[in-house]
Amino acid sequence: MSLDVRLVKTDGIILRRSDCGEADRILVVFTQNRGKIRDLAKGARKLGSKKVGHLEPFASSRLMLAEKTSDFWMISQAETTNPRGDMRTSLVRIAYASLVSEIADRITTEDGPNPNLYALLEETMDNIESDPNPEMALLVFVVRALKASGFDPQLKNCVKCGAEIHPDDHFFSPAGGGVACKSCGVHDQYARAIKMETLKYLRHIQRTPFSRLKNITVPLQLAVSIEGHLFAFLENLFEGHLRSVSFLKDVRGY
Ligand SMILES: [Zn+2]
């Protein structure tokens, strides 16, 4: 066995930590240069572990990774570059950040980098920490993350018959992959009615550059409606519930 261990330097955001055995911890990190990785942090829960304070959820860190040997990478060094400490002063912001982390975790596989998604995740975490309206940051994140991962919903043409979708009330079919026209939507038992206004905003978020979306605000009722369609779309894609949604609804109160 060679003693040369290839090291990879990369920035990363901690998505998830779980305990393993007596003292170990598994970390799921979305990194800039290697995409999603899992690290088995041996002894990470023992007092005195130097790395552990640099590996907090939602924080960005500069990492040194030892090349993957089996299922895991090894984080050999970690230094926090953006702790996002203000996030932890608000349960609502923690709930938004938890949901964003869960979506980022589930929408990715461990098959290499996705620089667009990484940049989006950095910006979204910053916005959730500082923006007076983290709801908008969540909606933009979901739409953009779907696009960056190749799963963006079809919103211009009916997913069943291909007809152009004109501004009107229609159906949204998570299983079909987007909007269904009135004639097709009524035959899809899982399709959800979508109002013209909701569809308009969804399209706007999908096509507008990220920087220009920062300042738009969406009325609460509309935001909740958009959110509902997007969560249904994600849960269909992931074939399971998003655990963090109920936490968010609990702390937010709607
Ligand atoms: Zn149709």
Observed structural traits:
binds zinc ion; 22% strand; 38% helix; 8 strands; five-stranded antiparallel beta sheet; OB fold (Dihydrolipoamide Acetyltransferase, E2P); 254 residues; de novo design (two linked rop proteins); alpha+beta
CATH homologous superfamily descriptor of the largest domain: Recombination protein O, C-terminal domain
Helix-strand string = EEEEEHHHEEHEHHHH
| Cofactors and ligands | zinc ion
Class computed from helices, strands and strand pairing: alpha+beta
Strand order of the largest sheet: 3-2-1-4-5
CATH architecture of the largest domain: Up-down Bundle
Q: How many domain regions? A: 2
Helicity level:
25-40%
User: Nearest-angstrom radius of gyration?
Assistant: 20 Å
Number of helices: 8
Strand content: 15-25%
CATH class of the largest domain: Mainly Alpha
Separation, N- and C-terminal Cα atoms: 57 Å
Looking at the structure, the CATH topology of the largest domain is: de novo design (two linked rop proteins)
Number of strands: 8
Major sheet description? 5 strands, antiparallel
On the 0 to 100 scale, the average pLDDT is 91
